[in-house]
């Protein structure tokens, strides 16, 4: 018996030492850097169609984090919807400023950042979405817009605020929240005629709804979104503009706790104008005001196919599940 107890004590001691060592390593290393990605890419041609699509995508996917509402420039600010356990996290200046922004970045360097989360300096932007499933054409549209003659993208001499990650975010960036690799081949988008496939593309590739509407940022799977814990079942914790906790909505088709009783028109109202069947949808839920009828239809069609999850959330007066 004494021998067994000694062995247990020894194992526990080793576990404590290992944990202390890991914490010390993470604290010292911080968020890691990587070799900058080098996508094979010719210069992006800024066609009128790409500039229009790029503006739509930037407004939908980038502006909430990077747009300074007072100046109208993509100069960045603190992400107030990130919960304190991640520390203080800031969106960078992505205007065309040559010193503080991306004015000297090449198209390929921007694509590398959008796809992997790694900048040309090798710094990993751990909170930045990784648009690994976005089509090459949509990515090119974003890049074209960021280099275009638009007021949002014009040079703004605002220095990006240094990140202040918590120990938890440092640990996560060294373990489960790592960057993704560049796609190994061309990335296309399904056609509008296949509503379910196109709806999935919108949800996981273009607008990345699963990031907030699955169970937890810490367990999301960027490469295989459907493998994220609680895929689209809600429960992820964010903050609103007043700093109060907000739990993301269950958007599976469960009729009791999800949106199974919503019509296509009601989904469109919620997405475009922030008006749900039972009341307004508050921040940090974005308003996708430029969604087309075809996009709303595709999203609705895809959501009907997602496995239903019974998970009540505070939206619509439903108590959150324990």
Structure keywords:
single chain, 322 residues, mainly alpha, Cytochrome Bc1 Complex, Chain D, domain 2, 2 domains, two-stranded antiparallel sheet, 10 helices, 6 strands, globular
How would you sum up this structure, described in words?
The protein is mostly helical. It has two domains: 48-79 and 90-164, Orthogonal Bundle (Cytochrome Bc1 Complex, Chain D, domain 2); 195-317, Cytochrome Bc1 Complex, Chain D, domain 2 (Orthogonal Bundle), CATH 1.10.760. Helices cover 35% and strands 4% of the residues. It is built from ten helices and six strands; from the N terminus they run αααβααβαααββαββα. It has helices at residues 2-29, 48-61, 63-66, 107-116, 136-146, 167-173, 195-206, 209-213, 264-273, 293-303; strands spanning 87-88, 164-165, 237-239, 245-247, 275-276, 279-280. The strands form three sheets. A two-stranded antiparallel sheet has the order 1-2. Strands 3-4 form a two-stranded antiparallel ribbon. Strands 5-6 form a two-stranded antiparallel sheet. α2 (48-61) packs across α5, α4 packs across α5 and α7 (195-206) packs across α10 (293-303). The longest helix is centred in the first third of the chain and has 28 residues, at 2-29.
